[in-house]
Amino acid sequence: MDFEKDNTFVTGRLKSVKYAFLGAVKLITTEHSVMVQFGIGIAMSVLGFIMHISATEWLFQTLAIGLVMSIEGLNTAVEKIADFIHPQFHEKIGFIKDIAAGAVFFAAMTAIAIGALIYIPKFI
Ligand SMILES: Nc1ncnc2c1ncn2[C@@H]1O[C@H](COP(=O)(O)OP(=O)(O)OP(=O)(O)O)[C@@H](O)[C@H]1O
Fold this sequence. Notes:
By secondary structure, the chain is an all-alpha fold.
């Protein structure tokens, strides 16, 4: 069955936002890795309120949470495409999945560094 694209400017954009929101809900409710990242994001936000972090610290923390969840979502999409186009073992599929996971690693290390810079001085 062909997918009919809505090319109207206003309704087309509104539908894109709706599909994007539904996609975010699908990510959070079906993907364990995204559930974990979402849970960590909520926990860090609660900690931010408890520790009364500054506006600048909120900016960096919010960016870090968004960065990790976005890259994790894209990594999940890459994994799904890879499994769809080639479910069997293939060296190149392994390489593609590894480098997509590597992108999550960069984002996660950045978030850990930001978290450490914000909270370690408050605990020592
Ligand atoms: N079809 C395949 N061919 C070759 N290697 C694969 C294949 N599928 C997975 N792998 C290897 O296994 C690793 C994990 O793949 P998988 O799809 O389970 O990702 P994951 O990060 O564990 O998934 P999830 O995010 O769902 O927990 C990949 O990074 C890759 O090295």
